[in-house]
Write a sequence for this structure.
């Protein structure tokens, strides 16, 4: 079966508005279409396809986008790129390398259709019309661009009004363009083709359509990229205002560069995905280590694995919370893994709340947070990791003050009263009044909180 199918044939010509993004597809060989799109106006972007047999097929869709994806074929037979049917689809800024497929599975496959899109036959193949295949980079593929495959003569309608523009193709074998049926009103614009070894152009057009020249690519940050002096820099022709970012998530600068990569010396914001980047434990994270005082027991571990919530707060007044993540602290490492999604890269305070401890802020000035990065912050190692040195030391560990049972920012008689009442009733189980985490509310909880109340322990935050 398809790994992902959007819609179904009977939904053809209805909008889906589905986004498929940031997935890793590895050896997805179950169907000729590893992704099949069958509703209109869908987006497939920033995915990484590794050694997948078949194609990402715009099977029965119009006005869909395929943008910024990586296709790594690793020279495995049958690994393909994008196959297109129907009207007004855009294939923009993708990277195809070492794909082993051909015919249905070329990097760019624009076959004939057997009907036009006014057909009601749900299993038909709508003639490809007004496809835009632009700003892609294709490296060492078995077959690059194929037009008009007829499926043994059963598809009679030639592709029409399609645009192939501003792509960079480097090939070492076979014709770069293979035409089985001549496309109608085909537009070529601003492409750079570099056939090496036994490869040939496969088509004869003017230099404004395709320049035959070495694009002078260099391997850097996982991809073959432009260099500063490359003829691909600022080389795009035509008007493609909607192409504003490149495959790295970097802005297109001035005149767009040909191919998937806009030339920059800086690091990419988006990268090809590996197994470690995806799945429940994958991707970017912020490891936070902190100890609610009451939970730290005599053996130097937490009495239970408890939940705290970590916030990213603006470093300037009014210090509003921008993002949050609930984490579960490991009882031995005191660490939980936060995954933030909303905050942009910038400087923030880390703020931690726990059900019966004093809200705790990180060091004055804030911390640099990098969206998409992997980071850590440890409140336990020194007094100055906490804003206002507002940590209580136990042995060599710096902890959140415990006892703010009602979470009003202070540890005082109100909290003590709540604990007293529960202790009087022999309350047990997971409750805020059980400060030392032994699942009973008793005299030991009262004593701990009494000491903190005596010291007027409470939250210390910037601006106060
Ligand atoms: Ca440029
Ligand atoms: Ca770039
Ligand atoms: Ca309180
Ligand atoms: Ca207790």
């Amino acid at each position: 079966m398809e790994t992902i199918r959007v819609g179904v044939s009977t939904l053809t010509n209805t909008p889906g508005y589905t986004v498929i993004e940031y997935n890793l597809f590895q050896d997805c060989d179950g169907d000729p279409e590893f992704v099949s799109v069958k509703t209109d106006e869908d987006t497939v972007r920033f995915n990484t396809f590794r050694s997948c047999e078949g194609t990402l097929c715009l099977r029965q869709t119009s006005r869909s986008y395929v943008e910024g994806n990586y296709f790594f074929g690793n020279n495995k037979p049958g690994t393909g790129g994008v196959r297109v049917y129907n009207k007004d689809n855009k294939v923009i800024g993708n990277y195809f390398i070492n794909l082993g497929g051909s015919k249905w599975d070329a990097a760019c496959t624009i076959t004939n259709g057997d009907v036009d899109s006014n057909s009601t036959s749900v299993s038909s193949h709508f003639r490809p019309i007004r496809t835009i295949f632009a700003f892609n980079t294709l490296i060492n593929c078995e077959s690059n661009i194929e037009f008009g495959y007829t499926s043994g003569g059963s598809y009679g309608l030639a592709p029409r009004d399609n645009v192939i523009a501003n792509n960079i193709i480097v090939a070492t074998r076979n014709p770069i363009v293979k035409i089985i049926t001549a496309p109608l009103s085909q537009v070529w614009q601003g492409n750079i083709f570099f056939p090496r070894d036994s490869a040939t152009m496969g088509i004869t057009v003017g230099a404004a359509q395709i320049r035959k020249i070495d694009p002078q690519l260099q391997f850097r940050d996982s991809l073959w990229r432009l260099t500063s002096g490359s003829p691909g820099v600022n080389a795009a022709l035509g008007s493609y205002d909607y192409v504003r970012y490149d495959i790295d998530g970097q802005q297109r600068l001035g005149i767009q560069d040909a191919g998937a990569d806009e030339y920059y010396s800086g690091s990419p914001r988006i990268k090809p995905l590996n197994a470690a980047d995806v799945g429940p434990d994958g991707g970017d994270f912020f490891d936070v280590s902190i100890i609610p005082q009451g939970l730290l027991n005599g053996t130097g571990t937490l009495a239970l694995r408890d939940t705290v919530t970590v916030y990213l707060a603006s470093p300037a007044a009014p210090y509003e919370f921008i993002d949050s993540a609930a984490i579960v602290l490991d009882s031995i490492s005191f660490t939980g893994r936060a995954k933030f999604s909303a905050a942009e890269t910038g400087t923030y305070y880390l703020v931690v709340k726990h059900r019966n401890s004093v809200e705790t802020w990180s060091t004055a000035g804030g911390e640099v947070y990098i969206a998409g990065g992997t980071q850590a912050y440890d409140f336990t190692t020194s007094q100055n990791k906490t804003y206002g040195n507002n940590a209580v030391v136990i042995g060599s560990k710096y902890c959140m003050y415990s006892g703010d049972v009602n979470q009003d920012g202070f540890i005082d008689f109100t909290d003590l009263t709540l604990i007293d009442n529960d202790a009087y009733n022999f309350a047990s189980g997971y409750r805020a009044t059980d400060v030392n985490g032994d699942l009973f509310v008793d005299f030991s909880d009262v004593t701990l909180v009494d000491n903190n109340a005596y010291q007027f322990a409470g939250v210390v935050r910037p601006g106060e």
